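Lab manual, section 2.4: Encoding a predicted structure.

Procedure: take the sequence of the chain (121 residues), apply the prediction step described in section 2.3, and record the output as C-alpha cells. A sample record is shown.
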Amino acid sequence: MTFRRSGRRGAPDRHVVGRERGSASIEMVGALPIIVVVVLVLFQVCAVVFATQAANQAVRDGARAMSLGRSVEAAVDASLPGGLTAQRITYPGDGAVRLELRAPGLAFLPEVVIERTAVMP
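Recorded output:
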C-alpha cells in the first residue's frame, strides 16, 4: 500500500486512513467464534472437574455407608450436589462401591461419563 503525503510532514493522506476504518471491527467479528468456542471448552472442563470431585466424594460416602451397614444409594444421593445424579451404582465385591455419573455437556460439547470406585476397610 502506498501512502501519499499530505501537506503536513509525515501524515498519511486521509483517503488511505479512511479505507482502514472499521478493520478492527471486522477482525473482531472473525475472532469472535474462536473466543466463544474457547470459553465453552473452558466451561466444559470446569464442569467435568466439578463432577469428578463430586463423584469422588459420593463414592467414598457410599463405601462408608456400606461398611457401616447403611443404605449406599441414600448416602450417594445425599452426597451429590443438585444437578448431578448417579446413573448407576454397582458393588463389584470386597466391600467396593462403583459409581457412574455423567458430567453435564454444554452446547455442542458431549457429556462425559465419570466412573469412580471406592473401598472402605
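Check your result against the sample. The helical segments are 14-19, 23-67, 72-79.
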